[in-house]
Design a protein that fits this description.
- By secondary structure, this protein is α/β, with parallel strands linked by helices.
- The protein has two domains: 2-140, Glycogen Phosphorylase B (Rossmann fold, 3-Layer(aba) Sandwich), CATH 3.40.50.2000; 158-299, Rossmann fold (3-Layer(aba) Sandwich).
- Helices cover 43% and strands 19% of the residues.
- It contains eleven helices and twelve strands.
- The strands form two sheets. A six-stranded parallel sheet has the order 2-1-3-4-5-6. It has a six-stranded parallel sheet with strand order 9-8-7-10-11-12, with helices on both faces.
- Helix 1 links the parallel strand 1 (2-10) and strand 2.
- Helix 6 crosses helix 10 (272-283).
- The model has no long low-confidence stretch (mean pLDDT 93).
Length: 317
């Protein structure tokens, strides 16, 4: 472990875990309650706790995963007070504010990034935003997280739907598509509490939250992986996981996703009939899409290494 480099994240993502492992960095992470009322009181506590932890550990370089915006407060203060290096790994959610308070956070963030060592974003669509001009920002895609896998078809088509149950995920539409395809087995990952009052067909299985190894094993047994979003200018962690395993991918038809996943992928509108059509096209071309995804994986590995050189310069400078 490199004790001089720390990752700070609340509700840490797979992207940050993989990047921290690559750098042999220590991770400081805490869970944010899902209840809105508890969040209101939890954020000040986490700000103080994170700041205390940083002072206690005295890292030389800090990566902070945003959002939430509030994690920028203790990391920014620590680095300015002790003249340490600060790198924001900014996920696209921060650029799509909901409500006045999040618009305020975005405006403060846009000023704050002018005074940090590096700001990382995940795709060119975000990078070209006006507020990032004349800032020390770069694009760094997700690092491919898994070793490649051998494709072994299932007797009945098996589709894994990667879910975080966020507001941008058309989960109901995926469930409606499953109802129209009774011969296909669907597995929905993640904590499914939000589906308590929603009925779904017998060919749908909710896996609940899985440990990392169990989650990877599930993805490896899939014929197709389905990852959807209604949010533009967004790349999806689940899509990179799919590339890592060289599985055929079905994802939402956005300009950003078309650019970054231009092989081994079928794009769909976020309605049940379109999802069904995409599944039928994919099942007819499984071997072709698998071969394309093998090529895309090699391209992504090389691209990430080239992009990461800019981060290396900051770390060693």
């Amino acid at each position: 472990m490199n004790s001089k480099i720390f990752f700070t994240a609340w509700n840490i993502t797979k992207r940050s875990i993989v990047l921290a492992e690559h750098l042999k960095a220590k991770i400081i992470t805490y869970q944010i309650p899902t209840n809105r009322f508890l969040k209101l009181f939890n954020y000040p506590f986490l700000v103080l706790l994170t700041f205390y932890k940083l002072i206690q550990q005295r890292p030389r370089i800090i990566f902070a995963q945003l959002p939430p915006f509030q994690i920028s407060i203790p990391t920014y203060l620590y680095c300015k007070l002790f003249r340490k290096k600060l790198i924001f790994d900014t996920h696209s959610g921060i650029f799509f504010p909901k409500g006045l308070h999040q618009r305020f956070y975005l405006s403060v963030y846009c000023q704050m990034i002018k005074y940090i060592n590096l700001n990382i974003v995940h795709n060119d669509s975000i990078f070209n935003r006006e507020c990032l001009k004349n800032t020390n920002s770069i694009v760094l895609e997700d690092k491919i997280p898994f070793p490649s896998s051998v494709y072994i078809p299932n007797p009945n088509l098996k589709i894994v739907v990667i879910c975080g149950y966020g507001g941008d995920e058309p989960i109901k539409e995926a469930l409606n598509a499953a109802q129209l395809l009774p011969d296909v087995n669907f597995y929905l990952t993640g904590k499914s509490n939000k589906l308590k009052n929603i009925s779904f067909s017998k060919n749908v299985q909710l896996t609940g939250y899985l440990k990392d190894k169990d989650y990877e094993d599930l993805l490896r047994t899939a014929d197709i992986i389905l990852v959807l979003t209604t949010r533009p200018e967004t790349v999806l962690c689940g899509a990179y996981e799919t590339v890592g395993l060289e599985k055929p991918l079905i994802t939402s038809d956005t300009q950003t996703l078309r650019k970054y996943f231009n092989k081994g992928t079928i794009f769909t509108k976020n309605d049940a009939n379109s999802i069904v059509e995409a599944i039928n096209i994919t099942r007819q071309n499984l071997n072709k899409l698998h071969n394309e995804m093998t090529k895309l994986r090699k391209e992504k590995v090389l691209t990430w290494e080239q992009q990461f050189e800019s981060v290396t310069k900051i770390l060693n400078g």
